[in-house]
Amino acid sequence: MPRQVKDARLDTREKRKKLERRREPHWRKLDRGSHLGYRKGAEGGYWVVRRRTEEGRYQFHSLGNADDGARDADGTEILDFYQAQDQARGWLVQQALPVTEQEDDAYTVKAALADYMSWYETHGKGAATHQYSVDAFINPDLGHIELFALTAKQIRDWHKELAEKPPRVRRSNGSSEVRYRDTSDDPDAERKRRASANRVLAVLKAALNHAWHEGKVASDDPWRRVKPFRNVDAPRVRYLTQAECVRLVNTCPHDLRALVQAALSTGCRFGEITALRVSDFNADSGTLLISESKSGKSRHVVLTDKGQKFFASTTAGRPGNETLFRQVNGEPWKKGFQRRPLIAACERAGISPALPFHGLRHTYCSHLVMARIPLEVIAKNLGHSDTRMVEKHYGHMAPSYVADTIRAAAPDLGVIEQSNVAELGRASA
């Protein structure tokens, strides 16, 4: 049995506590080309082992949590320094066996994505959209790669190729054929595809970071060095004029009309509106409670006088636990159900191209900005923690907002003396 090594920095809790937190683990040599590593976290660290392969690259394996703080070593999930050595050596022996005798414990990108989605389903929003990105765009190209072998170049090449592919056409029920949309007449197609590729990249990075935080890989360097495409997030925001809003509402069928009116009165997202219950409207305060938001935090939306009248009439005489908006057949609205009716309503209203439902949120915000309502007030009503998103999308609509605010509210420090000399007009050249 190999002789256990000692290390003045890693062998006790007190010594490990003094180590700096960093991305790269603190390594201790076990043998030629193999090392035991300790990576310090916010609430304790964990052990990893690495070995240099014949190709000259390192292969990593997570061993378990370190016996830091109040955690006592149990020899399985929580290890002291010497137990970590034993497990590391056992893994190194396993890796030296012929491939047919090795255990199938390779941790791949696909496995990392599966672990992340299992976590995300209970901690995040929009799991179905993430899962579609995983199944359609990530796993087919990167899923087979072991996480320790994944390189920045592989991710960059995949990201670039993804941005060059045309957008997919939604499949009909039961169809397995993948078809692509013709975008030859769309001057904004390249920006849209790059923006779409960035969103998929964000899903991949989130999954890989989750694996890194769980100790499945020793370093996050390969994907941390891959940057998204710049300046592709969104074009200039498109919104409806007041006249277009009236025409759209008048051409909507009754059930869709209520959704459109709610969106134009609140700036809420489709999912937030369709999740509303009658009791979420508070007539006394003139507000609407949004319990389920994109950020996971609830908020109260302040309604205008007309907005209050709309919700008062919509909720009148109805039980508080009833879903506020339903389709004409009595069924609840689900994601995507509004798309085709809204396109048809836009066509009847002479609005071309058709505005997606989220464009109603942009319309609400745009008119508030142009009415010179402070950006921080708008951001709070929309559910943003600060004004960055509002400034990014709508700041150009209020170029005088900063100047007007400073001139109206800045104090007079009394350092400029009043002069009775009138300024003469500038002489023309």
Polypeptide structure, described:
It is a single chain. The protein is α+β, with helices and mostly antiparallel strands. The chain folds into 3 domains: 13-101, Double Stranded RNA Binding Domain (2-Layer Sandwich); 109-170 and 188-224, DNA polymerase, domain 1; 242-408, Intergrase catalytic core (hpI Integrase, Chain A). It has 16 helices and 8 strands. It has a 5-stranded mixed sheet with strand order 1-2-3-4-5, with helices on one face. It has a 3-stranded antiparallel sheet with strand order 6-7-8. A hairpin with a 5-residue loop joins strand 3 and strand 4. Helix 9 packs antiparallel against helix 11 (305-315). It is elongated. The N and C termini lie far apart (96 Å). Residues 99-104 have low confidence and may be disordered.
What is this structure, in a nutshell?
This protein is α+β, with helices and mostly antiparallel strands and 429 residues long.
List keywords for this structure.
16 helices, hpI Integrase, Chain A, elongated, DNA polymerase, domain 1, 3-stranded antiparallel β-sheet, 3 domains, Double Stranded RNA Binding Domain, about 425 residues, alpha+beta, 5-stranded mixed β-sheet
Number of domains: 3
Secondary-structure element series: HEEEEEHHHHHHHHHEEEHHHHHH
Number of helices: 16
Biggest sheet architecture: 5 strands, mixed
The computed structural class is: alpha+beta
Please state the second-level CATH architecture of the largest domain.
Orthogonal Bundle
Would you state the CATH class of the largest domain?
A: Mainly Alpha
Strand content: 5-15%
Give the fraction of residues assigned to helices. 40-55%
Report the mean per-residue pLDDT as an integer.
Answer: 83
Strand line-up of the largest beta sheet: 1-2-3-4-5
Per the CATH scheme, the topology name of the largest domain is hpI Integrase, Chain A
Gyration radius over CA: 29 Å
What is the H level of CATH, i.e. the homologous superfamily of the largest domain?
Intergrase catalytic core
Categorize the overall geometry.
elongated
Could you tell me the number of beta strands?
A: 8
Q: State the distance separating the first and last CA atoms.
A: 96 Å
* Poorly predicted tracts of residues: 99-104
